[in-house]
Amino acid sequence: MKRIKIGLLLIALLMCTAASAQTHEVLIETTEGNIRIMLYDDTPLHRDNFLKLVDEHFYDSLLFHRVIKYFMIQTGDPKSRTAQPGETLGGGDLGYTIPAEILTPTHYHRRGAVAMAREGDAKNPERRSSACQFYIVWGKTYSTKELEAIQEKVLKNTNGKTNISSEMFWTYRKVGGSPHLDGQYTVFGEVVEGLDVVERIQQAFTDDYNRPVDDIRIIRFTRK
Questions:
Q1: Which 3 state secondary structure label does DSSP give 114?
Q2: Long-range interactions of 85-91: CB distance < 8 A, separation 24+
Q3: What digits encode the pLDDT tens for the residues 159-217?
Q4: Is the separation of the CB atoms in 191 and 136 below 8 Å?
């Protein structure tokens, strides 16, 4: 009898471990194609808030309202759902913020990284994240000299807390990304499918406020 109880306990523990280690993915269907994102379990506040919004269909019909070539694409402004052509966007939010979960060098701004936008340091010294606006990194590749200069700026902006590790260095040299943001924004996921769609979106023609002239819209978000 004791052996049976121990066996059942072990099975229960294994099931709990498997559940806690599960990978959460979401599919973004856009007017330019589909993007699949994996969310990190070691940024649980951001993961859970994001999944809550997905389940509520918050992101459905929103625009990619800020697109900068060779940098990133941004969405999540609730005002963009009914925005008129040429309307300036980016100020919409949900009335709350999320505590920072910055885990550099575990997660950093390599190409395909998914991170939350936020208010600047002057208004937001704790670097708390927006409740809903997020961006996907495209970036570019960098030379050794460029990375050395960026490292100095990152060290200054993070009070000496963030270094570009050797892994990060070679990723930025070979794959690309936006290293100047490291240690300052919460990266909570990555693109696992659809980087070609991200590339296409970041090449969009934009107005003076970085909004695509021809709307690029999210059709729907779903859990996978």
A1: strand
A2: 85/215, 86/207, 86/211, 88/209, 88/211, 89/63, 89/65, 89/209, 89/211, 90/65, 90/66, 90/133, 90/209
A3: 999 999 999 999 999 999 999 999 999 999 999 999 999 999 999 999 999 999 999 99
A4: yes
pTM for this prediction? 0.90
Q: Please name the amino acid found at residue 215.
A: D
Cα(175)–Cα(105) distance, integer angstroms:
16
Task: Name the phi and psi angles at 137, rounded to 5.
Answer: -80, 135
CA distance 171 to 112: 12
Point out which residues pair with 190 in neighbouring strands.
38, 113
Q: Which bin fits 2, alpha (ψ -120 to 50), beta or left (φ > 0)?
A: alpha
Average pLDDT over residues 43-70: 98
Residue (of 82, 176, 95, 184) closest to 133 by Cα position: 95
At residue 224, the pLDDT reads 85
Instruction: Report, as an integer, the average pLDDT of 36-57.
Output: 98
